[in-house]
Amino acid sequence: MAEKSWDQLSRGERNVVLEEMDQDTYENYRCLIGVSKALHRETPAPAATIKDNLMAQMRQRHAAPPKKAFWEKWFQWEVPVWQVSLASLAFVVLYLSGVPGNTVDLDNPGSDQLFFQGSVDTVFLDVEEAPEDSSDQRQQLLESTLFQYFPSWLNDAKSEQVQAKADRSLMAAALPQSETHLLPPTQAVLSAQQIIPLELLEIRG
Amino acid sequence: MLNFRSSYRGYPDAKLMRLITKGDEQAFSVLYDRYGEKMHRYFYRMLWQERQKAEDFTQELFLKIINKPHLYDPNRNFSSWLFQVAANMVKNEYRRHSRQPEITSELPLDLSLQENSFFECSDRKYFKKELASALNRLSDEHRQCFVLRYLEEKSIKEISEILECPEGTVKSRLYYALKKLAKSLHLFKPESY
Description:
Order of helices and strands of chain A: HHHHHHHHH
Radius of gyration of chain B: 19 Å
Distance between the termini of chain A: 154 Å
Helix content of chain A: 55-70%
Strand content of chain B: under 5%
Strand content of chain A: under 5%
Number of helices of chain A: 9
Largest sheet of chain A: none
Largest interface: A-B, 32 and 39 residues
Number of strands of chain A: 0
Shape of chain B: globular
CATH class of the largest domain in chain B: Mainly Alpha
Largest sheet of chain B: none
Number of strands of chain B: 0
Order of helices and strands of chain B: HHHHHHHHH
Oligomer: heterodimer
Number of domains of chain B: 2
């Protein structure tokens, strides 16, 4: 309608228009639109200050912010008051009620309580003292256990030594044992015991 | 600088918006030159020919572009998007003021009383004033459609995108807007202007 006058319309277009309005109405509408356009074009232009304001806003918005040292950022970090007060309150409540930890009340240990020990303490275990071993037994033990790992020639030499030692023991056993007789102490001994301590006497004897 | 600016003039709107997002002042300047006056005219026509209000709204619209350029979807037509934002601003303003001068009477308001004043109405200036008044008396939807279609020369499809309504609705609104305008101004003979 805004572009074509009645005369410029094709036959088909005219038929479409005639379904809604007659030719005069069409022309009137067309003129109305034309005048409205002219009216619209006469609208006063916007003030130049608008663009100046907008450009200033644009500069301000996209101006690079001055660089700050990290501690400045740290000190300027704003923490909401409610967070600080909540944290303080929580600290006070925990302090007054006792901070939950891994301490165990040994007097009243709960039967169904479960404790986890983080660090291992020193454990003392009572062990029976081993009996003193005689040198002969030790020697025998060493010989019986160690010799099996030595080479055969070393075993032979060692077995000779053992044999010699055994022979010496047999010879010593074969010697007539001197009988020890307990005689009553003589007068001299008795007098000596009174003068010399018994320990010294035994050492000298 | 002049060459730099003139090179920007050939840029499509979407590219200018991309540059504005990065803070390019010249791109914004070019975009404002392209749409500033047009949007001012639109606001002026839609907001009861109040110049101050139109200027405020124009400034506010472009401030949105500066502060929130990311809201623009580059896949969309920039002009349609801009008019959609403007149309929403206008709708909000209507809602805020509840100023909806609907025509309750089918009779033309001012002119019905002046049946015999045809010759008085022959003044072009007076006719334009009456036309502006008749536009104000249109309902918001009809005025939106009329201004966008015949004054801003948007297509029916674009108007349906801007106003977020079906094309059939736009056509219907346009028809009734024209009919109401013509009825309001039936004493005039527009051909003579």
